[in-house]
Amino acid sequence: MPTLSDPRLTITVDTGEDATVTAIVDVTFTDEEKQLMAFLPFINYSVACEILGSDPLFDDDLFQLGNEVIREDRDDLTFSRVVPRGDLDEDDDGGDDEIFARFTCDPGDSPLNLKSAEPKTSSEVSGSF
Fold first, then answer.
1. Residue 38 φ/ψ, nearest 5 degrees
2. CA pair distance 74, 65, nearest whole angstrom
3. How far is the C-alpha of 112 from the C-alpha of 61, rounded, in Å?
4. What's 123's DSSP letter?
5. Local structure of 18: helix, strand or coil
6. Domains along the chain?
7. Taking the model in full, what pTM does it have?
8. What is the DSSP string of 32-88?
9. Separation CA 98–CA 53 (nearest Å)
10. Nearest by Cα to 52 from 121, 117, 129
11. How do residues 70-108 score in pLDDT, each as one tens digit?
12. CA contacts within 13 A on the Cβ side of 103
């Protein structure tokens, strides 16, 4: 199965009402997966990044940051975009928000019995968004 490693999240608050959200992860495939992808062009893996708000009872789904189809190892696979700061405001109490990224890597609609990577999450970024 593919391996997701070194998940990272940064949030840069711009001077206005926006923030730049950047999430990065490394993706590594096994030798067997690399051989299959080399010989079978229909095998693709989809890496997705979702931004969530951390809460004690359940995490808030905030938004999908990105999705990319890959067929080889990738160091520093990066998803980034500018969002309104309010999209990161996951706590109604006006306190700090705790935001993290969750990465997944799935084989899509492959007819083979390929496995998904174990999801990985970044460290939390706290701030008043």
1. -70, -35
2. 18
3. 31
4. P
5. strand
6. 3-127 (2.60.40)
7. 0.91
8. HHHHHHHH-TT--EEEEEEEEE--SS--EEEEEEEEEEESS-EEEEEEEEEEEGGGG
9. 6
10. 121
11. 999 999 999 999 999 889 988 766 678 899 999 999 997
12. 27
